Amino acid sequence: MDTSVSNEDFLATVAEKSNGAALRGDYAHMDAHYVVQQDWAAYTEAEHDLWRKLYQRQMALLPGRACDEFIEALAKMDISAGIPVFEKTSKELFAATGWTIVAVPGLIPELTFFDHLANRRFPVTVWLRKPEEFNYIVEPDVFHDFFGHVPLLFNPVFADYMQRYGQGGLKAMRLGGLDELARLYWYTVEFGLINTPAGIRIYGAGILSSGGEVEYCLTPGTKSRHIRLDIERCLRTLYKIDSYQETYFVIDSYQQLFDGTAPDFTPIYQKLKSMDVLPANTLLADEIELLPAL
Ligand code: PHE
Ligand code: CO
């Protein structure tokens, strides 16, 4: 998303992308923050059934692969029966970490997105993918946003990191560091892995909601790199949007994310301007691959 565009231009882009077909999101009934009503009663039984199938497919894959924080929070959320009522989980989440869930029509402008995060509100898309998108969907839907992202927001440290990321986004917009900062979101919040005593586990929502990448990302000997997260290195690294990731950054703890993003990034953005970006799948001389071929 380009953040320099006006709301009108943003909506025009969304309409264009929809290729003339009906808009998936209803951008006509939102407030100034792109927040809409979920209108839970409007979901069809076929949609609830598709949710259950998506849920069951992921649950068969996640034990021993997803991090404990995700598995435990998900179990408590109790969202296996159908598309969840946002309000219910939102109340539970607020009690746990002070975050709330807000319903949005789909993609929203970056400024709006950062503003939500900075205020501990997580935007969740209201619509569900179509059955033919069971294995792959190009834009986030309610299954990705809710199933993938919400459970980790019950973890206090990760929840604090997400708020700080929103604040950092607002600052990066002023400093011209958006491309760099977006890479950090991608490689942590969406595709992050974490080291645990039991082995490497998944915490990134983009993997957790994906049918194929859950297994792929933990398979030794693929062409993808698994390397320890270094924030500056991550900010320089390009990512793949239409295939499995070629680089996974592995953290040791959520505290590492929180502490690593505490410093002022102004000098980092400055420094990176004069450095080349790194293609995904780069391995630097001093880096160790954490999942090499067996
Ligand atoms: N601390 C960073 C800054 O001063 C902002 C930031 C927060 C970046 C969280 C990433 C994640 O710019
Ligand atoms: Co996401």
Question: Would you kindly provide a written description of the structure presented here, covering whatever features stand out?
Answer:
With 294 residues, the chain is α/β, with parallel strands linked by helices. It has one domain (27-272): Aromatic amino acid hydroxylase (Phenylalanine Hydroxylase, Orthogonal Bundle). The chain contains 13 helices and 6 strands. The strands form 2 sheets. Strands 4-3-6-5 form a 4-stranded mixed β-sheet. The longest helix has 20 residues, at 156-175. The radius of gyration is 19 Å and the shape is globular. The protein starts with 6 loop residues before the first helix and ends in a 21-residue tail after the last helix. Bound molecules: phenylalanine and cobalt (II) ion. Cobalt (II) ion binds at residues 140, 144, 148-149, 190, 205-206. Residues 1-294 form the Biopterin-dependent aromatic amino acid hydroxylase family profile domain. Belongs to the biopterin-dependent aromatic amino acid hydroxylase family. It holds the Pfam family Biopterin_H. It comes from Undibacterium macrobrachii. Its EC number is 1.14.16.1.
Please tag this protein with its features.
globular, 6 strands, binds phenylalanine, single chain, 13 helices, Phenylalanine Hydroxylase, two-stranded parallel ribbon, 44% helix, 294 residues, binds cobalt (II) ion, four-stranded mixed sheet, alpha/beta
